[in-house]
Design goal:
- The protein is α/β, with parallel strands linked by helices.
- It contains seven helices and eleven strands.
- The strands form two sheets. It has a nine-stranded mixed beta sheet. The chain has a two-stranded antiparallel ribbon with strand order 5-8.
- The longest helix has 14 residues.
């Protein structure tokens, strides 16, 4: 029987990403023909929007992650995936994590249910491989975010008492602020400073809380860090009983944050 010839090595000057090269190399090694559609899928970037699944159905009938993902649909060249705590592998398998450029996380009541092994893998992916991580609202207590920050990540006080907020663009030249102007949210769960996190490299968004009695109080709304090779963004709004993730200003911020947090190709 005539021996099969070995597949030719991939050229090193194609300009494709390392992840794409690995995917194509695997296909070549197994004798598979790589179709154009598969190549296009392999070159797409990927954001995974994760939620624990506890948001009230009257506000988010298909959960918060679905609404956030809908707001990211205008991203060109991106695959947008929703994942949740009740999914197999808690929504983030080894394979999925290895193919994720940005992981966006919303949690509230079930932080403790997230497995430590998953937390460790997420943190390694950020620090060693440059995956972006975006933590939303009560995910300041999410285990991956706390491990990335290395601090308590607590606020002084938490009040959902009818407070509103004026959100101010503090760093207009920052990529996360692109196309964003100052705006108001009619209700917000007030997270009172100080916020026990490392000094951020940028505060893109500031805020002024307006309490029901008219008193005002400052609070940071959008903070950035670099942790190892990865970028991390924390966004204060996003309480599950408010419609923040339907609002165009919030959607623009998150769309910008995904592109900022993604590792360079």
């Amino acid at each position: 029987m005539k021996a099969k010839s070995s597949p030719s090595p991939l050229p090193l000057t194609t300009g494709i990403s390392r992840r794409t090269a690995l995917a194509l190399g695997t296909a070549a090694a197994t004798g598979l023909l790589v179709a154009p559609g598969a190549l296009a899928a392999a070159t797409k970037r990927r954001v995974v929007v994760w939620s624990e699944g506890t948001a009230p159905k009257d506000v988010y009938p298909k959960d918060i992650n679905t609404v956030i993902a809908d707001g990211l649909q205008s991203l060109s060249g991106w695959e947008i995936i929703t994942a949740g705590l009740s999914d197999p592998d808690q929504g983030v398998s080894d394979e999925r994590l290895a193919q994720t450029d940005v992981l966006m996380w919303w949690g509230h009541q079930k932080h403790g249910d997230v497995k430590d092994d998953l937390v460790d893998r997420i943190v390694r992916r950020v620090k060693e491989d440059g995956m972006g991580f975006i933590s939303l609202h009560s995910s300041h207590f999410a285990k991956p975010y706390r491990k990335l920050m290395g601090t308590a990540c607590s606020w002084r006080e938490y009040k959902a008492d009818g407070t509103s907020v004026k959100i101010k663009v503090k760093a207009p030249q920052h990529p996360i602020a692109k196309g964003v102007k100052d705006f108001d949210l009619p209700k917000i769960e007030r997270y009172a400073e100080p916020f026990k996190v490392p000094e951020p490299e940028a505060v893109v968004l500031d805020g002024i809380y307006i309490k029901p009695n008219g008193e005002q109080e400052p609070g940071r709304m959008g903070l950035c860090w670099t942790v190892g090779k990865g970028k991390v963004f924390y966004f204060t709004p996003g309480h599950e009983t408010y419609d923040d993730f339907f609002r165009p200003e919030v959607r623009r911020i998150l769309l910008n944050a995904v592109q900022w947090a993604a590792p360079k190709q």
